[in-house]
Amino acid sequence: MGYRVVVLGDSAGWPYKDIIKADLEADDRIDEVIDIGLGEGADPVLYPNLATKGAEMIARGEADRGVFICGTGMGVAMAANKVKGIRASTAHDSFSVERLVLSNNAQVLCLGQRVVGVELARRLAKEFFNYEFDPASHSKANVDAICAYDGSLEE
Asked: Which NCBIfam families does this chain map to (predicted)?
């Protein structure tokens, strides 16, 4: 079974969102891409509202992972992390994307359209799906500590 992925881009990130969405739709590892906005000509929506909506979908089990894009990636990351059980972070290099999943079991990759070039953003989004968290790894204790803090730890 493949991933169900929610993608979003605010007014500063929708062009990359559209490109990455097309890449994910062509990826055999992805079963479903759920686009929650924005797009060209769309009415503006505050990025915190988009990011929390996408993060809530993941927290409810309606999607497995997300790729959220704004100008820097930082705003959507901060907003997504307000949702109980969500671990989201910006990443601008391959090693960080790897560690996002393997060390932190993050569900959301956040990218900044004003920070990275489009080809790097595409590569990082693709790489995000190369990794699966190993619950037997030494990183589980750290992830459990994060989850215990927000009350989302499930034993």
From this structure: RPI_actino, rpiB_lacA_lacB
Distance CA 146, CA 104 (A): 9
pLDDT tens per residue, range 43-57: 888 999 999 999 999
Q: Of these residues, 19, 69, 70, 97, which one is catalytic?
A: 70
Cβ-based neighbour number of residue 111 at 10 Å: 29
The crossing angle, in degrees rounded to 10, of helices 118-127 and 14-25 is: 40
User: 128: left (phi > 0), else alpha (psi -120 to 50), else beta?
Assistant: alpha
pTM: 0.96
147 counts as catalytic: no
* Rounded CA separation 144/14 (Å): 33
Cβ burial 78-88 (10 Å sphere, 16+ → b, else e): bbbbebebbbb
Angle ∠(40,46,50) on CA atoms, nearest 5: 80
d(CA 98, CA 100): 5
**Cα 43 from chain centroid?**
23
Instruction: Tell me which residue of 114, 18, 102 sits closest to 67, measured CA to CA.
Output: 18
Q: Pull the structure tokens for residue 63.
A: 């999607």
Q: What is the mean pLDDT of the chain?
A: 95
